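User: Structure please.
Assistant: Input sequence and predicted structure:
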Amino acid sequence: MSLQPMIRTISQTLFAIFLSLPALAQQLAPAIPSTGIPSTGFGGLDQYRTSRISIYTDDFGQLARYREANAALAPPAAGESRVVFLGDSITDYWKLPDYFPGKPYINRGIDGQTTPEMLVRFRQDVIDLHPKVLVVLAGTNDIAGVTGRTSDEDIEANYASMAELARAHHIQMVFASVLPVHNYTHDAEESFALRPRDRILGLNRWLKDYCTKNHFVYLDYFSAVVDERGMLKRALADDGLHPTDAGYKIMASLAQKAIQKSLAENRAR
């Protein structure tokens, strides 16, 4: 074969390979069966995301979750220091009356939520309830990619949007640190793998600095529940992520101090 036909043959072969690359890439990142959603590589997360497709498409912020409860809630009484706890499953599973008896504290946590979802329902579940203080515990599901891959910068922007909305409506802001996770049990392995320690530490540094610069209260759960290996203490979470009663007791004490500090700083202004 002469040189020119050989070059033409090689070029045609390379061009065919180039055209096949997109199809090859799709084969290497298989879709979740029956959904067409690309797999994250984590079976538990894939299954969870699949179970929430109707939520993501029909009610992304899950406004329906607390709509009736909000409508039935009376306005704050004179002198009442109402507090709203906004967050994901860690807040959702927290039975506030058991840890803050007699306090006008309202739980507006929703299992699985990320910061963009919380922003969607921020007016309904925070502003319209007229709290004096808002406690936000969020970000762990953003890191895990529950509603898709999210950069630290996007999470930080969502934090800032919540803070700016709260300030515009004269609501005192308390930002809680992202909790550490552990992999001491089999049930904890995937949650741990999805939440790199460096990202948790980075977001917490940003939150602390943001609170200092903007005169908000930073609620440092992390330092109180982390062990010598930099992970969540084994006794405080069976699944590596969600606190046990012992964990919530530690958090409740710290939260109460942060709320009191926020109210005192507001009175001093």
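The chain has a mean pLDDT of 90.
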